[in-house]
Known about the structure:
By secondary structure, this protein is of the alpha+beta class. The chain is 45% helix and 16% strand. The protein has a single domain, classed as Alpha-Beta Plaits (2-Layer Sandwich), CATH 3.30.70. The chain has eight helices and seven strands; from the N terminus they run αααβααββαβββαβα. Helix 4 (66-73) crosses helix 5 (76-92). The model is unreliable at 1-30 and 192-210 (pLDDT under 50).
Amino acid sequence: MTSRGFRKGRPGGQARANQAADGGEGFLSASLFSQAQILHLMKAEFARARRHGIELSCIMMQIDRLPQLVDLHGAELRQTVRQALADMLKVRTRGADLLGVMNDDRYLLLLPHTGLDAARLVAERLRGLFAELEITVDGRALLLTLSLGVTANESRDTMFFDSMVGRVEAALDHAAARGGNAVVRFEELHLHPAEPLAGRTTEPPAGPAGKE
């Protein structure tokens, strides 16, 4: 049984065909929208949501310490880790959800018909699942974590789709600045700017022996 916001699979025939055609880049190139595409889709979904009173949430995420890990272990690690995240998202999101890659190794996930509380649960689930992934370098498992920002169109002052983009980016920046491995809702940042955020649920784990 799957939780709301997740499903076990997505038809992949066309993606596999594209993978063969593009030289094996796989899900990153065959199934993720580009930044221009995902922002265009977000604009359309935002307009539809406002017109029909539909809930719309979005999650922006980034892999913690990725530049440092790449510097330490080599450029190939970037593609390996990004592919692991993309594969996880492909399996753990709904067919109606929209996923695109942004600048600076960030990802934007749109969740139509999803309110803020449900989106927060999705983000927490993704954070936990990513932490369970195991990628090894020279026989040693890396400790990998995600930072995630979450927002929704529930606020009356969210008049334009780019307001949502700015809010989710601010939430992600705050999650990363507090050490990563966190989910932060913009609404928490907005309401309690000077207080510790409830969006941070765990401290970055120390990791078992053999992990960095």
